Amino acid sequence: MTISFTLLVALIGVALLFDFLNGLHDAANSIATVVSTRVLKPHHAVIWAAFFNFIAFAVFDHNVAQTVGKGIVSATVIDPQVIFGALMGAIVWNVITWRYGIPSSSSHALIGGLLGAGISKAGFDGVVWAGVGKTVGAIFLSPTVGMILALLLVLVVAWSSLRLTPMGVDKRYRKLQLVSAALYSLGHGANDAQKTMGIITVLLYSQGLLQGGFHVPFWVVLSCQAAMALGTMSGGWKIVHTMGSKITRLTPAQGFCAETGGAITLFMATVGGIPVSSTHTITGAIVGVGSARRLSAVRWNIASRIVVAWVVTLPAAGLIGATFYEIAALLSR
User: Fold this and answer.
1) Which stretches are transmembrane (predicted)?
2) Fewer CB atoms inside 10 Å of the end CB: C or N, the chain?
């Protein structure tokens, strides 16, 4: 189905709105630890995170965009109505969870919305199960890897700090946390912005506007990175509070371990083309550094509520996406 230029621009605008809300919703993931440890003030932290969100395109290839564009729902199924349903499913769910300060996954909201709209159109035959399998697997794997890496980093930090006074440790890791926050924001900007790149690219592909096969145009790359960075600069303070202090209290050294563990996890997933959740990843890492002190240091009731939100996100966004697809399909008849 070929659509008008006006409608094409409008859909791209909705995609960039989702990307902006993704940055807004997930700002806490990038800055929660560095703010809660008082290494940076909130308004300085969001600028720091937004800068590294934006420049991520210069570091990573577009493997995640390829997966989202044609590895979740077959590109032959995609049409403007499916794209609209996917984006609205993700946007509505993001707004609901942002409103109530629930750190759910923007990534999986988009995947859920895309699946809901795609299945509503073509049934389960249009689903690319290999891509869905590795994405769903990452729901459980990414926080686990983040937690394990953070725990290992806690051991390394403890061993390397034996000769330092507590004040010396604090001083060292206040500086190093700037580096770890930058690395985490770089990974976040790479993995999350590429999901919107994939959506816009497959929309252009469905309209026959890409020459030379499925690839991400450079203007799409810059637009998506900029939208995410602007969203990050707008902040998400309720979720910052949940991520930075409600799960467990952090010192600068622990914040460094959490951010670095999360960053390494995001780097590996991005290189592998796996659309993971930065929310899941940093939550697992924060739980890891908290439990390294003692298990009671983690507020498990808060962590369990977050896990419930993870499980609910895919089906909830899917139902919303399917509903908006049906509305769009009905209006286009």
Assistant:
1) 46-65, 77-96, 108-132, 139-162, 218-240, 302-325
2) C
